[in-house]
Amino acid sequence: MPETAFDPGQIVRGCRLAPFTTLRAGGKAESLLVVRDADQLAAAAEYAQSEGIPMTTLGGGSNVLPSDAGVPGLTVLNLARRIQVSEDGAVEVDCGAPLQDLFLKTVQRGLAGFSFAVGIPGSVGGALVSNAGAYRANISDRLTGLEVVESGLRRWVSPAFMEFSYRDSRLRRPGSSDVCLVRARFQLEMGDAKALYDQARDYQRQRIGKQPPQASAGSFFKNVNDKAFAEGLDGLPPALKEAGVVPAGHLVEKVGLKGFRWRGASVGLRHANFILNSGGATAGDIRRLAEHVAASVYERFGVRLEEEVLYLGDWSGWQTTGLLA
Questions:
Q1: pLDDT less than 50: residues of the chain
Q2: In this predicted model, what pLDDT tens digit does every residue of 248-265 receive, in sequence order?
Q3: Residue 169 known to be catalytic
Q4: How high is the pLDDT of residue 250?
Q5: For the chain, where do the domains classified as CATH 3.30.465.10 start and end?
């Protein structure tokens, strides 16, 4: 494996992060480095971890909200996008590759497994961090291995390393900045190409009907998995009651917040589990509205919504106050 030296001369100081996020909000990176291949990413991670510098990796910039106060340490914009597909269905992909590209590259070879990813923004690495998925499928389902840099060392690990659960992994938890995802391996099976395209088109139509055109992070909150709660909830479709799944958007709509606006942030009209930057919203505006939504749901239903969106950077001065006055 070729060695790539870390070049601090390529670092940009004090760069705004809002243009690199789908919410178009947030402060500045203390230091920003753009990498375009897996070796450059690994070298940056090895350097940061060896020097004790906090490192934040951005891919497509969805599902994240950087603090208005900024992101300390080194932020790496990962544009490494190589995808290799073998005849036997083995796939190796850089974690900076868009999830949509991974779907297209595999379905073109007649491989099944990533139809759920159609229309999901963001990168493979970001999807792995939050175990992204839809339509009863998760990105972790077909994962066979991960290349990581941990404590300054680059190595391949098994999927168990990630401790996956519903929309979660160990990398969403405090102290995860000492792990960087470099590449991933998946094993897919052959499918019927036409059937795969048809399925993907159906998923895409559903998403177009739900997802708003304004800037958003994607689904803001995780769905609630609680069978007893689901069974007792009015208006929930029987299939969801049987599965014990309560969509977060259903609860937000039930408390009357669909379309609710506060400053430059708003709750989606098409789908209530989207919090939008409707124009000039700061990261604080968006988080404050999200907290109002969560507090309203808790006051009505007694369940706590958990964010899918990750808050990046320095939120040390943030004060949670619940419902808006």
A1: 1-2
A2: 999 999 999 999 999 999
A3: no
A4: 96
A5: 83-194
Residues of the chain with CATH 3.90.78.10: 213-312
In the chain, residues under CATH classification 3.30.43.10 are: 8-78
3-class DSSP string for the chain: CCCCCCCHHHCEEEEECHHHCCCCCCCEEEEEEEECCHHHHHHHHHHHHHHCCCEEEECCCCCEEECCCCEEEEEEEECCCCEEECCCCEEEEECCCEHHHHHHHHHCCCEECCHHHCCCCCEHHHHHHCCCEECCEEHHHHEEEEEEEECCEEEEECHHHHCCECCECHHHCCCHHHEEEEEEEEECEECCHHHHHHHHHHHHHHHHHHCCCCEECCCCECCEECHHHHHCCCCCCHHHHHHCEECHHHHHHHCCCCCCEECCEEECCCCCCCEEECCCCCHHHHHHHHHHHHHHHHHHHCCCCCECCEEECCCCCCCCCCCCC
For this structure, is 183 an active site residue? no
Residue 306 annotated as catalytic: no
Annotated catalytic residue: which of 154, 167, 287, 288? 167
Q: What is the pLDDT, as a whole number, of residue 242?
A: 94
- What percent of the chain lies above the pLDDT cut of 70? 95
Q: Which CATH class is domain 213-312?
A: alpha beta
According to the CATH classification, is domain 8-78 in 3.30.43.10?
yes
In this prediction, residue 311 carries a pLDDT of 96
CB-based contact 269:183 (threshold 8 Å): no
> Domain 83-194: which CATH class?
alpha beta
pLDDT at 9: 85
pLDDT value of residue 2: 44
Catalytic residue among 67, 123, 219, 278: 219
pLDDT in tens, 67-90: 999 999 999 999 999 999 999 999
Cα distance between residue 218 and residue 65, in whole Å: 11
